[in-house]
Amino acid sequence: MSEKNVTAPMKRHMGLRTSRAIGNSLIYALLICISIIWLVPFVCIVLQSFRVELKGPVGYVIPKQWGFDNYVALFQTDFPRWYTNTFISALVTAMLQTIIVLCMSYTLSRFRFKMRKPLMRFMLILGMFPGMLTMIILYRVLKDLGMTQANAVPGLILVYIASSGMGYYVSKGFFDTIPKSLDEAARVDGATRFQVLKKIILPLSKPIVIYTILTAFMGPWGDYVFAQYISFGTSSGMNVAVGMYRWLNKDQIANSYTMFCAGGVLVAIPVTVLFLCLQKYYVEGVTGGAVKG
Amino acid sequence: MKKFLAVLMAAMMMFTMIGTAGATSLAGTYDITVWVAENAVELTKTQIENFNQTNELGIVFNATVEAVSEADAATQMITDVEAGGDLFCFAQDQFARLVQAGALAKLGVKAAETVSAANTAGVVAAATAGDTLYAYPLTADNGYFMYYDKTVVKEESLDSLEAIIADCEAAQKYFAFEMQTSAWYLASFFFATGCVSDWTMDAEGKNFESVHDTFNSPEGLIAVKGMKKLVDSPFHLSSSSGSEFASGAAVVVTGTWDYTNVQGILGDNMGVTDLPSFEVDGQQYHLGSFNGCKLMGVKPQVDAVKAAALHQLAQYLTGEQCQLERFEELAWGPSNLNAQASDAVQANPGLVALNAQAPYSTPQGQIHGSWWDIAKVIGDDVKAATDEAGLQAALDNYYDKIAALFKLDNNALLFVGAWNGWNNADEADTYYFKDGSLTLDVPESDYMGGRIVNPGKWDSDKGFAQVVSGTELVKDLGVEANPDNNIVFAEAGNYTVTINGTEITIVKN
Amino acid sequence: MKTYTDLEYLKLSKGQKLLYKISRFFCSIPQKIIGLFAALWNLIKKGCSLVKNEAVDIWSTFVNGDWKTKVSFLVMGFGNLARGQILRGLLFLLFEVVFIGYMILSGGYWLSMLPTLGTKGPEEVYDFVLDAYYTVYNDNSFKILLYGVLTIFFIIAFIYTWRVNVRQNKLAEQILAKGKKLKSGKDDLRSLVDDQFHKTLMALPLTGILIFTVMPIVFMILVAFTNYDGAHDGYYSNLFGWVGLDNFNTMLNWNVNSGGSVQSYAATFGEVLSWTLMWAFFATFTNYFLGMFVAMAINKKGINLKKLWRTVLVMTIAIPQFISLLYVSKMFAKNGIINGFLMNMGWIDQALPFWEDPTWARITVIITNIWIGIPYLMLITTGILMNIPADLYESARIDGANPWQQYTKITLPYMLFVTGPYLLTSFTGNMNNFNVIYLLTGGAPTNPAASSAAGTVGYTDLLITWLFKITQGAESQYYLASVVGILVFVVVALISLIVYNVLPSIKNEEDFQ
User: In A, which residues are within 8 Å of B76 by CB distance?
Assistant: First the structure.
């Protein structure tokens, strides 16, 4: 065995290895950069929330005096009420919206009836109208139903779930990937459509159910424009976004900006925790469905 | 016959009303909602409680006090009057919108008399639309002046805009003056050179009839030249928040409401003073300001008794005692004459600075709601301009938009008074107005002529010679008419021009 | 335009094929428009014949039917009841009673007021004794329009139900004539979880959509033909009424504001639209490619801590935008921490105009949007990337393809094929991306020429934020906003139509099953 014979393949191998190592370290560097960029705003918000010396916005990041004052101050405002409102509406919306979306998408995926195609096309067209303007009408309707101001929470839930049937794309895409032969086999065995849904489809649909719950749960936390209409200046009917947004008003910001940041941290907690726990299902649901709508 | 019936009906209605209302007293319990600024919530609750205990009419209010900022209140009220607060506070610039939206109840005769007597003339005018008082003055401190950091801005620089900018740039600190997003602050430069934008409402107070606007004039050009110096500085910041001192600002132009905030940030280094002067072509112009107020309005009620009770409360809450309480707790400058005279108010440093600025300030009358949107873009336009032509274009643009405001109405007319010099548009006095009347001061000059045209037909390059319409409007008052003129005044003086459809009558007052 | 035969077409390169398809599409537009009219005409003809057939059918049912059927024409459900279908009969009857009751009690009023939208506005009355003004409110244009529309919906529903009722009588007669048994109430209920299960499942969602989406949209479209604004809110200030096509004239006429330098709304619309399209394009594709890139980087063999990287990115999704975006907007301010940092490092000596300069502001919003969008795209593409069969890469590698070639030959085509529909929805979604623009810039910096009495327009304003600003402006011109809303719809629909015709993968949904 002469040395020559060995080195050629070895060299190639080494070359590949070093180039992969270089590539990987480049990627690591990139990922670290990205992580820093993505985390900066959050770190800043968290740091601001512990600032004690000044309550308005400032030009530096690291507080000079640390403390929990802002969190304590939060609980002397209506914040707990807003938080509860948002939490309740997010929870109820998540449940009801999931049921509605699953009903709709399952039907459109599995049944073939006369109006199916026109219905889907119709909903697609409906989705192209900007929803911004319809809010004022919905506000009036809810007002006539007595679901505004102090009673804003049921009103908000109603509006969040009422049109959620139009968001069937992702889960329909997911159901489409479940083979139809499963249903047919069960039908041959004498199961009703309802039993097919309950016994066969749902157990297979865990990712999409969780995905739907997760997205439905997240919506109410960030809703500002519509929630503002519905609560209409009544503090007890506000959600976190509307309530906290007022702290940024010109005459208020100097006294409550750090409190806003503290509130923001508290608002982010439930969604972040949920998201981190259920990330896996989210990915499965979204890849199963989103791309095939 | 019809007229007679109508009169009869009206008379009958009056009698029935007196019959039914006469028996009622105001005593009773009322559920109401009150909208005030966030920091005034607790104080307002206490004040309403005091009212419940002290009023002699037996009125008890069961009040829900909500924090709705003065900026949001008007928008909310306009969206849905019914759901709005029974009493609500708002800044003066929202007044006209609120009246148009039917969101303000008129004051009764007695209440109007009391309010007019107790408050400064400026704030009473601010709450008046047409001939009617629509709101209660709450504060009179809605003006702005200059806060500065003593370690950055030198004592001797304080009178000169240029020197202050230089100080800021040298220290790499910001000069905050809200030029790009607010007509309220931006008007400061125009007032400095004597420009005006005076709007007149009809007697009902629901519509704007006419405007006398001189922003587009040689003086206006001087104003934007001054503004250009400021906005071109890399250390100019378009903001009016006192908090900017914590983020690198050395000067902030804002009002009394930021006093405690700025003091908290700067401590002993805080200085307050009137606005500086700027120099154009060797001449100094002291920056002006708006001098406005905050108002409290009563939402129109369907129940006369509740309306009367609410007006009692509004009168109490905006009275001398409550204004003084608000001054002590929140440092809101009172509009009540007696409250203003108190020693504590006189000595308040924020108000002192405001008073120093007072000689240069313009009372903020009734201004068309759209004016704020139209005027606020001047700042960005000026910033983008590269030469004098660009600055002039910014003014032309502004002017044309004001014209367009009226142009949308077919019955709008434009009066161009050319007594300062012929064929020189910049020196003409221009008034827009709709059906109704317009009062003019015609000064003594060689050309006491003018013309009324429909702005829609009037080409915007101000080509005086291009006017073709208006011949039917000629009202020759005796002097040989210029062919382009349709009105020529025989003598100087004050005239009332009234338009009714196509007919024009001109009467000397 | 040259037309290729199939054989010639197959010889073309990929890019040429796409170009060919696109140009074919545009060439076929006139034809398609003619086709559209033809289809419309056919639809009308079909509709006419349908109505005729229905009328004939109803008439023959009446003439040939027995007395039970005849009574059912007046009293809905009578036939069902008489023939023993109690449940159906009662439902029909109940519906008729509710309908008639509603029409008498209020529906008739709303309908009769609809042509005028009210005639008597509010009146302010002075009470001499109390020395106070109070207001007598009368007609309410808003409610008339709202409930008028609802009533029309209800009438349509009633006519449809009545028709079903008539048809059921005919069917029942036929079934009985054959000597078969009619379905009982129990059968009906059972079929609701079986044959007719789709009706059960969709009843609630569709009702919700009808009341909370369709009805408001109809209302919104109608508002475009009225003068509804802050000073004519229909109840408290003044009534509003029908104005015909005036608002469309205001919005679409290039000459409407043309006194001097004042821009017409049509020109403003054009400006805002072009930026909206530009924004949607960049926002969609920067996110798409960068998101894919990040996903590939994280998924690459030999990269550890995959979960950590993903988690960091996913944080942006989890924190509500009104908090994170507001903070980011402050970070980029002239005296924000980014400028402060750069100046402290001595890299710049005066602040960068992130939000002040139009071009800077546009680029900054697109970059910030990448920050928001990459995590979503990372999640979506992660799953798809893992679905690509590994042996494809294996064989490519054996053939000596470098990573770039693997990407362009395998990954990208696969991704584009699978995510085509997603790209379209995200493009139209970005066109209406209210939150990002509203929270970041609020439209700033302002565009002085385009701003008008209807509100300020900024260089970063999208159509949707402009529309919102119009409703919030000094005059709250809802009618103008609703015209803009309709135009937004037209634009979005047009784009979707074009993309649908170019992208093959969207058209056939059955392909995926």
Answer: 232-233
